[in-house]
Fold:
Amino acid sequence: MEFTPYMLLFLFLVISSAIPTSLARDRGTYVIHMDKSAMPMTFSSHHDWYISTLSSMSSSDGILPTHLYTYNHVLDGFSAVLSGEHLDQLEKMTGHLATYPDSYGKLHTTHTPKFLGLNKNSGSWPEGKFGDDMIIGILDSGVWPESESFQDKGMGPVPERWRGACESGVEFNSSYCNRKLIGARSFSKGMKQRGLNITLPDDYDSPRDFLGHGTHTSSTAAGSPVRDADYFGYAKGTASGIAPKARLAMYKVFFFTDMYDPEAAASDVFAGMDQAMADGVDLMSLSLGFFETTFEQNPIAVGAFAAMEKGIFVACSAGNGGPHGYTIFNGAPWITTIGAGTIDRDYAADVTLGNGIKIRGKSVFPEDLFISNVTLYFGHGNESKAFCDSNSLDAQEVAGKIVFCDFPSDYDQDEVERVGAAAAIFSTDSQIFLKPRDFYIPFVAVSHKDGNLVKDYIIKSENPVVDIKFQKTVLGAKPAPQVAWFSSRGPGRRAPMILKPDILAPGVDILAAWVPNRGFAPIQDDYLLTDYALLSGTSMASPHAIGVAALLKSAHPDWSPAAIRSAMMTTAYLQDNTQGPIMDMTTGVAGTPLDFGAGHINPNMAMDPGLIYDIEAQDYINFLCGLNYTSKQIKIITRRSKFSCDQANLDLNYPSFMVLLNNTNTTSYTFKRVLTNVENTNSVYHASVKQPSGMKVSVQPSVVSFAGKYSKAEFKMMVEINLGDVRTQSDYIGNFGYLTWWEANGKHIVRSPIVAAIAPIIRT
Structure:
């Protein structure tokens, strides 16, 4: 989960369940889906039709409906404030498809470009022109335009195709936009209709960021390079977005209010996505998610389908519901769903014992504190004091000393804070789970192995003393990446036959821009201000992926959103920096594709994938038909009055393969796929399969050839699963292997995971 004093970083939006309109007698906000083909010829626009529809309604209290937004791209319809009587009238009107109540919810880098292998002289950065003139739309909590990350030095004119605007509002002027931040808008009508007062000191009724979340995500995706950025001395270096020459447009949909925690309304999210499409964004990132209902009730799923049809690539955070299975959010197959991983940078303090032994432990204490020759205290012989149990320590006994706490499992700094010790050393194997905000008092977390060295020294010394130096940054930390403990895992609940998440990207302790007037780092009873903050969450992973997608789209403007995702997935890597498998940081054992998807994103390899698995809008419609979605459900998602389910099919041309096990250890499935060559030359590829015990795979044909760029080749893959009495790794993974296409006499390797998983019950 995201770790700030005020919020969870995953924007987790709880959806209100649909209720019979006959029971909804109080006024409320609703999103109304309409069939555009039913518009009478007398109206010149759909907006006029919707307004006329509303004006024709009556109610016994004499209060008329209130129109909020007309949606032109994201869906066919509008949002409005209606009474129960209005709802009854609306349901009987020609062209009405469905009405859903508005929903509300709460809140779910200097080094990451280098960690991703980005280099200014070779690879994805120069080949992708650093994302030059790609326009990234961010739906989030707003932006702090004065941040150095949004300065536009060296950037050319705003692309002529841009149709967006920079709105003025509370403490935000249209002049704040520039050639980097080319658009900023705010959408709050749905929130206000809930009766919430969006005003200072709780938030800005404008595109200005109050929470800090939107400033962080947008600068991660496409922030300009900023030298000497740091978090209180940690992670110091040049902070740069993944696509530093891309343009940014912020669509503020999240607000902190005087009555509730940070929230967003579905009607506002719809409006933000609709406007982003109208403005002309090329890519869209949403570090937020709605509960996984069926797709036609999920605002992001509906909006992302419309974006996909316009060629707009959409990346979303997978959610912070890990480490458990079936916790994926944003699982629609036309969305690229991003999980979070660690990077090879950590934060530490150096401990030197009086006997000369040196130990390095975890610490992100935000002050430059140097402790020299200070007495160590350990409650040896008293288990409660040794464990630093609640109310166990004597304030006078530990005054001015460094307390050593030998925690048997987890840690708790409250007792050390209560007695006011000078600092502490915690012996715990939970240090990898510590967050920057945990260090509101000066302490160092060391492993039990190193803790035993400290304990042994204290016990054997008459006058144990210690030196501690904080604010150490460790580069090359191993192993990395690991799957973050909070990152949501598959399978998805609504379409488990599609592997989710799609891919892993950096999402732990990411340094990026922050709002400078909002306290971030807790220390004692106060909060310190900072221009750059370390945040964690799948919220941080999605903007990394959208930055990479901007590089790919800049280099390959003709690629579809599915082609971009395919390039990312089939070139992802599976090994960490120890050359071992990517680990799950929760369990300490190797992860699975249900944790990390196809692997960790690799921008340089994705730039030149060789082959891609492409998907068109009609393929997704066939998939919805295969899910047994009704005609009404499909109309809402696709905005199409005419379509056919003659080709209903659950086997999308996806760059991964899922075999579902339903109360059985044996099953088989035959997949059909089409590969597209994206190289300018002829080529031949050979299939290779890595199959574990209990999985049998055959590929026909095992050799495919391509006559030139955009030529295609079909193949079938038969997968048989027989787990027998084999105990599975978890309650949701059966086993997994990989299909790899190797280019003959070439460099390209195209890899896809094959996963057998226990499926949840699919509800449509």
Observations:
- DSSP finds 18 helices and 38 strands in the chain.
- Confidence is low (pLDDT under 50) at residues 1-25.
- The radius of gyration is 27 Å.
- The longest strand covers residues 666-677.
